[in-house]
Amino acid sequence: MKIPTDIEDGQNFFEKAESEKNPKLKIRYLEDAIDILNSYSEDFPDDIKNINKIKNLKVSYTRRLLVQLTTLNDIEVDDWLHYLRVFIIKLGNEIKEVTKNDPNLNFNLSKFKDIWKVELREAAKELNLI
Predict the structure, then answer these.
(1) Could you tell me which of 42, 33, 39, 85 has the C-alpha nearest to residue 64?
(2) For the chain, how many structural domains are there in total?
(3) Does residue 107 register a pLDDT over 70?
(4) Which of 1, 2, 39, 32 is nearest to 15 (CA)?
(5) Rounded to the nearest 5°, which phi and psi values hold at 8?
(6) Which candidate, 61, 81, 82, places its Cα nearest to that of 17?
(7) Contact (CB, 8 A) for 38 and 17
């Protein structure tokens, strides 16, 4: 059985994200992959075989992205926030799944979260937001 074009496109965007060095492009490709695959899942909820393939792709590439997070130390704050938004809103379940049993991935995620945390907390205090 042929894999639907949308799933192939989603996988291709995941592959582009994985190999991309530019953080802005990496997150854009990642988000495109997720959006395409989520759209397919919503449009064809009864296609269990391909829904499972999508779940496996999302988990696999989430794991790979978390391994790569250690290379994103010089990321700009806007890009950092974009990654966090994608992690929380679009990959929340996959992040939980891959980090619950892998302390290294959880550590990578924690280190990534810490990159701009102090600066944002200080800015929020100065603006009386916290």
Answers:
(1) 33
(2) 1
(3) yes
(4) 32
(5) -60, -45
(6) 61
(7) no
Write out the two tokens for 99.
């980090």
Better pLDDT: 82 or 127: 82
- Torsion angle, alpha carbons of 116, 80, 82, 31, to 10: -150
Q: How far apart are CA 88 and CA 94, in angstroms?
A: 10
Q: Calculate mean pLDDT across residues 38-55.
A: 96
Whether the predicted pLDDT of 116 surpasses 90? no
Measured CA to CA, the distance from residue 46 to residue 3 in angstroms comes to: 15
- Residue 17's domain comprises 5-126
Torsion of the alpha carbons at 37, 41, 44 and 46, rounded to the nearest 10 = 140
Q: Whole-angstrom Cα distance, residue 122 to residue 130?
A: 9
Helix (H) or strand (E) holding 100: none
What are 3-46's pLDDT values in tens digits? 899 999 999 999 999 999 999 999 999 999 999 999 999 999 99
